[in-house]
Amino acid sequence: MSAAPSIRDDASTSALPEALKDLVRRVVRKARLWPSEQRELKAELESHFREGLIELTKDGVSLEQSIGILCEDFGDPDLAARLIHRSKKRGRPMIWKIITSTALVLLVIAAAGGGYLAYVSLGSPTPTVDYIAKINEPTQRTPEGDRAWPILREALLQFRPLPKELEATPKSLPRPGDEKWPVALAWVEANRVILPRLEEAGTKPTWGFLYDHEQTIEFMRQRALRGGEPFEEPSETVDPLVPPTLSVLLPNLSEERNVARFLILDARDRMTRGEFAEAWRSLDIAHRLGALLLSGQTIIEQLVGTAMISMSTNEARQMLHGTADALTPEQLALVKASHLLTMPICTLKGDFRSELFFFNDVVQYTFTDDGSGNGRLIPSQFAKVSAYGNSSPGTDETGFMNDAALVAMSAIHADRRETVAKYHEIFDKMEELYSLPLYDPRRAGADRVLDGVKSDGPTGQRFALINTMLPILSRANQLIREATMNELATRTLVAILRYRLERGALPQRLAELSPDYLAAVPVDEYSGMHLKYAVDGGRFTLYSVGNNLEDDGGSSEKVKNGAYFGREGPADIVYWPPAD
């Protein structure tokens, strides 16, 4: 048998009939081999067919018959190509097999990764619920004549801003005779024109504020114009894919707190003139406005409302202390009939459930929606909302997560349904713990509920949205609970003053006040027992053990407040005699 001719030997190649050359090309093409292997196979097949032709023609078989015999003996070219392919693969070196297999695996992984990257990165939200409208529904159903905000809004538009001289010490308002009193008095006199409107607003049954971006901007514009201040119009470019609940504007809150300060200063001025009823009326207005604001939908509104209530209640005790020995039955009757003494205590509580509305709104803007309430987190959308929340694992110094961290986090983040379920589970657990008395050490577990989702590991990334958006409410709950004790303590001391006026002596125990002067003796949330009450001759002390959970005998000395809270404050919360 002669050596196989080269495929580049045109003379030899041309000697092969066209039918056999087509058969060779078909087998070589179908065998799916490397170029070098194709060249070898082609040479082998051509050599095989030439030798066959030579032998058949020597035996006297014609060329056409020889071609037919060779084609028939060769069989199905497709099957031959597959068999050749397998044979060549088995014969390749092991290192080649390892390299090609690894390359193939990497190629598949890269393709899958690229596909998944596109899957998690290119989604877009399809929000379907207007949560701003849902939050506004109760107000929209309330007749405008029952809403306090429209009246208060007009009063705030006329309200003169707090003087800069008083801004430095907003918590220690000056008293008659102080260096800054003339400035405070001039401010009070300039604002007394709005007193009737404030009083009217305070008598309304509902707060009535609408969370409406355009209306709020208009209020800000008019407020600036009336005050002669420049007003910078907000940008008209609003990203339609930012959750609307995250951009709720509440520019009125600082002014409402200043309204409470104005009313307190007004009361102090009127007391210097001996106008007890007018002074108490100003405190009553501040208390009413604070209670209305406490019914707001946001935590910040509720906290400002709580602060206004506490400011007016503390000032009321100061006012009663200054006139305690000269109070008349008529004055005590006025006090007893005021809002501070008649407001249902059950309304003095925070309602944090509206946070569920805000979270649900964020979810529908940060997840895709598969139509059945599920979906995946969208990295670009999470980046938008993360600026409004706490810092998250993988963030840079500006607080934003970089692209790689966003995509990685999105890949392992829980789906939409599981995220919402987890948020409700955590929120319900926190509320359960917040309902415990302030002295109960289990309350500290409310802040630890998030530990499982705030770690830097995979768990934290799995619920990164909850980690970012869920507020810690322990301090807010504590402030509102303390405000409730403040109210109850003030009602208790009014009962003590009435008892003394009618019976000529102080009660020796608080239990003597019930039921004629007080429905029930208040319980100290920090001890689980009655408020502390001590009589010393014609004087008495009323106090709570405070959040260091220890009875310090009515001391107001600053201490580190206990293992559960870790804040500095008075050893005891002294309600009477009130601090200056």
Q: How would you concisely characterize the structure shown here?
A:
The chain is mainly alpha-helical.
Notable features of this structure?
single chain, 580 residues, 3-stranded antiparallel β-sheet, elongated, disordered N terminus
Find the count of extended strands (DSSP E, 2+ residues): 5
Mean pLDDT: 84
- Sketch the major β-sheet: 3 strands, antiparallel
| Number of H/I helices | 27
The radius of gyration over CA amounts to 41 Å
Strand content: under 5%
Which structural class best describes the helix and strand composition?
Answer: mainly alpha
Low-pLDDT residue spans: 1-14, 390-400
Sheet with most strands: strand arrangement: 1-2-5
Based on Cα principal axes, name the global outline.
elongated
For the record, give the distance between the C-alpha atoms at the N and C termini, rounded to a whole number. Answer: 122 Å
Query: What is the helical fraction, as a range of percent?
Result: 55-70%
